[in-house]
Amino acid sequence: MNRQSLDNPSDPSLSRVDGAVKVTGKATYSAEYAIPGLLHAVLVTSTIAKGSITAIDSHEAEAVPGVLAVISHVNAMTIPGWPPKKQPAERVPPGTAFRVFYDSLIYFDGQPVAMVVAATHEQAVHAASLVHVTYQQEPHRTHFEKNIAHSGIPLNVQRSKNSPFQDYERGDAAALRNADVRIEAEYTIPTQHHQPLEPHAIIAVWEADDKLTVYDKNQGVKSAQGQLAQAFKLPRENVQVVATYIGGAFGSGIRVWPHTMAAVMAAKQLKRPLKLVLGREQMFTSVGYRPYTKQKISIGAAKDGRLAGIVHEGTGQTSMYEEHLERTVLASRALYACPHVATRYRLLPLDVNTPTWMRGPGDATGMFALESAMDELAYALKTDPLELRLKNFAESDPERNLPWSAKALRECYELGAEKIGWKNRLPEPRSVKRNGMLLGYGMASSLYGFHRHPSKARAAMQADGSVIVQSATMDIGPGTGTAMTRIASKVLGVNAKKVRFDLGHSALPDAPGQNGSSTIPSVGSAVHVACEALKSKLVALAGEMPEGLKSGGQVVVRNGRIFSSQDDKEGISYADILKYHRLNELEVTEESKSGAERDQYSMYSFGCHFVEVEVNPLTGEVRVTRVVTCADVGAIINYKTARSQSIGGVVGGIGMALMEHSEMDHRFGRYVTTDFASYHIPVHADVPPIEVYYVDKPDVQANPIGSKGLGEIAIVGVAAAIANAVFHATGKRVRELPITPDKLI
Ligand code: MOS
Q1: Which CATH number applies to 38-47+50-139+195-286: 3.30.420.10, 1.10.760.10, 3.30.365.10, 3.30.559.10?
Q2: Distance 204 CA to ligand 1 centre (A)
Q3: Domain of life, per the record (predicted)?
Q4: pLDDT of 6
Q5: Which of 99, 368, 641, 662 could bond to 479 as cystine, CB 3.0-4.6 Å?
Q6: Continuous segment of H or E residues that includes residue 185
C-alpha cells in the first residue's frame, strides 16, 4: 500500500518489454508494413449532412497519372454478407451499421462517398480533390439542444426487458420532495473526439480470391477477424488480422469501421494490396467519439447528510442509423447507500456518424454529473464533500443487494485526503489566494464495473529454458506484454528477459479485444493458469528423471529451476528437463473464465481523485496544479505501467474538463475543430505533478490473480474533481464542459 514513486525494492516493476523497439522506430505500426506493389487509397467524403448523391464525376480524377480507380457506390463490388441493394435506395432502419459505398444515401457530413486508388499517396490525394460529387440535399438535424424533443427510449431497450438501460427505480424517488436539502441541476458534456497520435490505418492484402490479411489499427484482432469473415462470407481462418503495435486508442478501435471495409473491398476489386490512412480531419467522422450528453440530477439529503434520494436522467446523441448506448446513469444506482434511486436513459438520433466508447464510456460522463451534484449538495448542507461521501458509503451493492467482492474505497479516500492535505482546506469558496491566483481543492469518487471475458493463453517452455506465451490480446498503450511477461515470469520462476509474449495476431489463442478494462482480469488470468499448468507438467517430468525431484516437499521455482523444497540447494533446470525428455518444446493451452462468483458478489474497481487548481481571477484561466489519484483495483501486477495508466487517465480527464470540445457548424452539420490547432488536448505544460496511489490488496473473489481493471477508472470522476475544485476556487459552478475562461468571468 501507499507506493508512490518508490517501487517495491524487493520486487521491482518491469520496464516496458517493447519500450526499446518503440522508441527506436523498430516497431511496425499498421501503415508501416512494406508490402510489394502496395497501392495508396484516399477517401472522398460528403459535404452535406443529409440527402443523396445525384452524380459522381470522376473523369478528371481518373486522368491523373498513377490513378487506378475511383470507387464509389456506382462501381463498388457487392459485399456478400450485406443484403441486396434496394432500387430506389431506402434509408436503413435504426440498428443498421453504416455500409460504405452501398447506395446513394448520405447520413452524415464527412461520410465516405468515394475512394481514389493510385500508385502513390500524393497522386491519390491530388486526384481525390478532383472528384466532383453532386447532391440532392435534405434538411438535417445536428443540433442537440434544438432537437432534444426528438429524444426517446432507445429501440433496443424497448425490445429488451432485461436491458440495463431500462428505466429503473428502487424505493420511492419521489420521497426526494421531503428532503431537508435538495439540489436539481443540468450537466452538459459536448461531443469529444478520440485523438490518438497514430490515426487509424489499414493495409489490406488479398491472396487469391479468398484469403485476406489486414494490418489494421484496432483493439480486437479476433473480433475484427469475425466481422470481416462474416462480411466477405469466408471461413474465419481465411481472414487474418494483425495489430501488433498500436499508437494509442481507447475505444476508437473496438469495431470495424467503414474505412476498413472500404480498403478491403478496393483491394479485392483491384487485386492489389492497398493502404489507407485516415487524415486527422477524417478521424472526426470515421471512428466514433464521446457523444454529446445532457443530464439532469435531482439529489437530496436529510440535515445530517444522509441521502434521501437520487434521480438521474441522461440523454445522449446517436446517429440516425445506429443506437450507441452508454452507462451514463448507471453509476448512480451503485455508488451510494441511498434507498431511493431512479434513473432514466434516452437517446437523441441526429444526422451525425455513430458515437462510440471513449475511455470510461458513460461512467466518465455520468460521474461528472453525479459527483458534481454531490459536491453541490455538500455545500448546500455546509458539510465537507468528503464527509458527505463517507456518510453515504455503500457497504454492499445497493443495486444488486450483493456483497462487494472487495471494496477499499474508504482506504482510497483516506489516502487521497492525507496526501493532498484535505483537512487544511478552508471550506469557504473563493476564500484563498496564492500568488494572486484563486486556489481551490476538489475531489470526486470513481467506479467502474468488472469485466472478465473467457480467454485463452498458450505457454511453451523452450529447450533453452526460455518461455513463449501467446494470446490474441492487444496492447493499445498500457503495456499488456509487460504485465503478461511479469505474470509468466513470476509463476514459472524465470527471468523476465527469458519470456516472450506474443499478442495482436488473430492466429493466436482466442482472447477478447482490449476494452472495458478487461485485459488484465481476463487475459492475465489465462496467462496465470497456463503458466501454472506448464509448471505442473514440468514438475511431473522432473519427477520421472533419475536424479529427479525428491517428493514430499513444497516445490519452489526460481532462476529457471525447480527445487523440491526450500532446502533443496540444487534443483533441476527447465532446460535439463526438456533435454532429458528429448523435447524441443513443452506447451500447454489453457482457458480461464468467470464462474459462479459473479452471481455471489458485485464486482467493481473503485477510486477517487483529489485536485488542486489555481484560477486567474482576471482571465478565468484554470491551471490544474496538483492531482492525487487513488485506486483500489485489487492486486497491482506491474506498478510502473499501472502508474503510467493512472497518469494517462488523469491527463484525459484534464482534457475533458478544461479543453476538449468538438464544435460543429450546424448550418452544414460539419465539425469545424478538426485539427490540433482547434481541438485542444492537454500538452505537457497543462499537466501538473500527478501522484498515484494504489491500495494493492488482491480481490480474491475476482480471479486467480486478484486483479481488476484500471484503465477506465483512471479517468472516471476526474472532470468532476476538477469542476469541484474550480467551484471551491471561484464560487462559480460550471455544469457545462469544458470549463473555458469565458464561463468563469
Ligand atoms: Mo475502452 S472505451 O472500453 O477502449
Answers
A1: 3.30.365.10
A2: 25
A3: Bacteria
A4: 53
A5: 641
A6: strand 181-189
Considering only the C-alpha atoms of the chain, give the largest distance between any 2 of them, rounded to a whole number of Å: 84
Cβ-based burial of 618 (10 A; exposed 0-12, middle 13-18, buried ≥19): exposed
Q: What is the mean pLDDT of each run of 10 residues along the chain (745 residues)?
A: 57 94 97 97 98 98 98 97 95 95 98 98 98 98 98 96 97 92 98 96 96 98 98 98 97 97 98 98 97 98 97 98 98 97 98 98 98 98 98 98 98 98 97 98 98 98 98 98 98 98 98 98 98 97 87 86 91 97 98 97 98 98 98 97 97 98 98 97 96 97 98 98 99 98 96
Q: Which of these CATH numbers, 3.30.365.10, 3.10.450.50, 3.30.420.10, 1.10.1040.10, describes 155-191+290-451+600-743?
A: 3.30.365.10
Helix (H, G, I), strand (E, B) or coil at 118: strand
Contact 265, 238 (CB under 8 A): no
Please give the distance, rounded to the nearest whole angstrom, from the Cα atom of residue 457 to the centre of ligand 1.
22
Report the top-level CATH class of 453-593: alpha beta
ipTM of the complex: 0.97
Query: Which numbered atom of ligand 1 lies nearest the CA of 219?
Result: 4
Q: CB atoms < 10 A from the CB of 372, how many?
A: 27
Specify the ligand 1 atom closest to the Cα of 253: 4
The closest alpha carbon to 236, from 228, 247, 244, 248, belongs to 228
Distance 246 CA to ligand 1 centre (A): 14
Using alpha carbons, select from 671, 674, 680 the residue that is nearest to residue 142: 671
Please report, for the chain, the start and end positions of each structural domain, with discontinuous segments joined by +.
38-47+50-139+195-286, 155-191+290-451+600-743, 453-593
Ligand 1 binding pocket, CB closer than 6 Å? 219, 250-251, 254, 357-359, 361, 515-516
